[in-house]
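Known limitations

Files may contain more than one protein. Parsers should not assume a single record per file. Below, a two-record file is shown to illustrate correct handling: read the sequence, read the token line, then continue until end of file.
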Amino acid sequence: MKKKKVLFVGESWFFTTIETKGFDQFTIGGYQTEIGRIKKYMRDVADITHMPAHLVLEKFPDTVEVLNQYDLVIVSDVGANTFLLHPDTFAKSIPTPNRLQVIADYVKEGGAFGMMGGYMTFMGVEGKGQYHGTIIEEILPVVMEAGDDREEHPEGIKIQAVNPLHPLLKGCKKEWEILLGFNRLKAKENAEVLLEFEGKPILTLGQYGKGRVFAWASDCAPHWMPPDFCESQNNKILWENIIQYLTEQRR
């Protein structure tokens, strides 16, 4: 089976920690990413090119022609402003391409696209993801809330298949590992919900133009997706099936 070329955008962060020890205080900085876990459970089906969030500002493709080298584009935990505010536009007031529109045009012409949940996708923490009302909401199979759309479940939740016999769930066991939260979304009328929690969509599929799209409302790695879910056979099988389905029209 030939691996699909996937551009995975985001799922990275810088952090600053201030430690206070008695009278003295010092600061620690660093950088982290969870792309290793994601590559591991997608490794049999996807050849992943990772673009960390901080590189999106200047490096994300601004033409459909460049995006067309990939079979699938996935955005995870990086907000709309990072795509929209190129340094030339933000700092110098120079017009630059709308890269969210570039994604939409890529999908309309037959590309595949998906968004994974988190604190900076869909709307996220304090609504800072800022995708509601954008062209990305138009192309996705879901409608987003106007503000903070997180639903935290520290107790853990079990998702369920809407149709356990669906081809994209072939090989998956009925029982799933727990998730710890998700972004609240509503499926569009013509969308197909595969997995849900108490009637709220977790995995939704759709079509935009000639291309296929998905919305995964939870995380793709910790913290909402615990290691047990991340490393489960169900998770591996699910994403193999999804990636093959999304990209089969580009053969």
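...continuing to the second record:
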Amino acid sequence: MSAEDHKALIRRFYVEAWDGANYDVADAVFADEYVRHDARGTEALPGPEGQKQIAAAFRQAFPDLRFMVDLLIAEDDLVVGYWTATGTHLGPWATVEPTGRAARFNGVNIFRFADGKVVELWNVRDDLGLLEQIGARVHAGAPAT
């Protein structure tokens, strides 16, 4: 696959899974040995099932989630995606109970391909900004007291 083919597959994943709630597209995008590297701790399963689980849980927390791909850059076996999402916090997210507040946040993903599928993903999302917008108490590493 070419770098352009990789970009097309990542765009498909963003549009179908994140914006359209078609989680099964992860089977076409992610290898069974896929590994996720996240800026924050995660308990995601490996492989396509892990991506399905993450997207479904996020959409449960933000059922009106809208996902826009702002930029895709590809070179060799890497694709970088920058995106913007909006949604209303109507379900539990991590340890935060629903607040009913709307949020707009961004993220960057770096995908590495092998044999036509993603084998690694590095994820950085503006969780601090998201938490602030939904009204969660944020202590930036300091004790809550």
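Parsers that stop after the first record will miss the second one. For reference, the second record is described as follows. Residues 21 and 56 are 7 Å apart (CA to CA).
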